[in-house]
Every structure is written in C-alpha cells, then in structure tokens.
Amino acid sequence: MRLHAAVMAVLLLAGCASAPPKLPQPSGPTGQILSIPFDPADAASPVLSARLCLPQETGPHPVAILTQGSAASPELRGTLQAASCDSPSVRWFTGQKYAAVSLLRRGFGASTGPAVEDNGPCVAPDYLRSARLGAEDIEAALRAALSMPWAKPEGALVVGQSTGGWAGLGVAALNDPRLRAVIVFAAGRGAKVFLPPNSVCRPDLLVDAARELGRKATTPVLWILARNDTYFPRDISAELHRAYTQEGAPAEFALVNVFFDEGHALYNAPGGSDVWGPIVQNFLSRLPSSTVVLQQGR
Asked: End-to-end CA distance of the chain, in Å?
C-alpha cells in the first residue's frame, strides 16, 4: 500500500481536562496517527498505534475499528503498518461515512508492548486466551476513539481479518453495548506458515474456543470467507461458525466465490470490497443503528 511522504499529526489520546480539539478535516492518504494508551491510568502501559481516516462529510461519525492479521514471522511483526487511508478496505468504510481507525495491536508495528496474543505451541495452543487478549486492545482503541469529538457515541463497528477477526470474536463475546456489530474476515488462529495449505494447529481446540466465545455472545457478527481461503478453509471455518452459534450467538456466515489465487486476501485486496461490500451493507441494513445488549436467556 502506497504511503505519501507527509508529516503525520499525532494525537495523544490520554484522558485530559483540556478543551476538545476542533473536528479534523477529511483525511488525506496518510490520515492521522493516533497514540492510544492501553491503560490510561498506568503511565507505563503499552501504547497502541492506529491511523485515523475520516470521511469527506462533516462529522461526528460512527467509528469502525479495523484490525489486521498476523505477520508471517516475528521479524516481520514489527514492520507492519496501519492501513493507509487510500487502501481498499479503509476507503470502503470511510465511503460509508465511518471514521475508520486502523489499529495495530500490541507487539505489531509501532504499537509497544509484547506480542501477547501468541497462542503457544502448535501441539497445545491456547486460542481462547489469544482472542481475549486481542479483544483488550480493540476495546482500548474503541474507548479512546469514542471519547473524541469526531466520533458518535453509538453505532460502532469492529472489523478484523484473520487473527484480527479472531480478536473481533473476542470483542463480540464481551457484549459491549457501544457496538453495533462485529465483522470478521476468515477469522481464526493457528494457520502457520510451515504447515501445508488448508491446515491449522489443533483445529479441535480452535473449535472449542469458538464455542466458548459464542456461549453468551449477543453482539451481531458477520463472518465472511472466500471459497479459496487456504489459511482457514471453508470446512474448518464452517465448523468454527457452527460451534460459535451453537448456543444461539447471532452470527451470519457468508461464503463468497473464489477470489483470485488466494481468498485470504479478500478483505484488503483491490476489488475485494466489490465482493464483500454489498454483503456488509445488507447485513448492516437489517440492524438497528445502535445495539442494545439483551438479557441472557440461554
């Protein structure tokens, strides 16, 4: 993705008593870099890096927290950058009048702190822990974003791809009333680069974790997958979805046609939003503008 050599404004999203700033102008390709304290009460806590991209229309806007998958290796993890404002996925959400906040979770790119989401050895991964720790980062970003004057206090979305989608399911399990919905693309963990295509470390444990995440979840979820995704192929993904919804968690599964050579690229590849955009629009059109968490009855 193309980055322009422009100076980036930095907003420190720490709680302070100063007057709120004026609404930012519509974002250029670089947007604005946000530095988000993971725990505002702890000066030593990690700082999450994110890129804010605003629609052309005057705000405030509903917020969409967008978060990425993992790097192919620990060495590449630190080189990841938040999606630019002219990337296909960000453009789609700003085109729908969302303030898009592309989040790098702890240990990725410019975000500080250890990469806490590592699910451990392939023979005994802790997938549930990974989802919950990733969800903590997303919740921190959501809290910070919703405190800003460009943000509406309701109707927020969380959007995650791959391991970011798995973290999104962790957020959905929290039943945060500020969220309208969670949208995940090829959600999962345990697809290692040294494994053959269509393989996942201990898929039985991944299914168990999906079942636990969905056990009391009430936040609406849209789960999108391309038929030729070789990281979390359709048989594994469909089983994950069945387990997640087993006790009534509201999650729709959308299987789309083959997308070029590798369906895992659907979310942010050129032309991808032409495929998934109408599906997301249809899903959101059937939801209220804000979500009220219902009492658990199951």
From this structure: 45
